[in-house]
Design goal:
Order of helices and strands: EEEEEHHHEEEHHEEH
Number of strands: 10
Structural class: alpha/beta
Strand order of the largest sheet: 2-4-5
Strand content: 15-25%
Largest sheet: 3 strands, mixed
Radius of gyration: 26 Å
Distance between the termini: 43 Å
Number of domains: 4
Bound molecules: zinc ion
Helix content: 25-40%
Shape: extended
Length: about 200
Amino acid sequence: MKWSYFNNCSEVFGCASLNNKKYCILNRQYTKEEYETLVPKIIEHMRKTGEWWEFFPISISPFWYNESAAMDHYPLSKEKILESGFKLSTYENPKPVVTKTIPASKLPEDIREIPDDILNWAIECEVTGRPFRIIKPELEFYRKHSLPIPRRHPDQRHLDRIKLRNPRKLYSRDCDKCGKWMNTTYSIDRTEIIYCEQCYDKELS
Ligand SMILES: [Zn+2]
């Protein structure tokens, strides 16, 4: 059985990221004889326990559900995360040590009115109230491009970007140019003009 990232390997079982290896189980080297005796035994055991060909169980996941990309695509409540057997992270960033904290609504719109001292402040996110800071290269970037200071915590900005994506669902509809039947993440009642892949590529070339 081969899982992932192998280079010139054969007879490896439950391994990952190996180069030029043979007769390994869980990335550990065995002799040919040991390998050939052990592997059928392990398979037989896994068949009995129902683990054979299944994904690794949730219980050994080293990740917290709410800190993984799964949360972006399939958001769950705290209760649901625990109920489903996933790990839940309750980590909160320590409060920033600052000379003052200001609500986002008090920030001047114009970047030219922002003093250097902002680097010593925390800003309260306009959505969640969570405080965040601006670092020097960031302030320089906003000044260079005449951009206002963000009013939302970086995590909230990440969520906002995720919300701009289409739902993870495919709809069948006609191409708006050639009429070909296709699958797209744009539902039929959306107002955008949707082309099939070929028409889209042609339009751009
Ligand atoms: Zn088309």
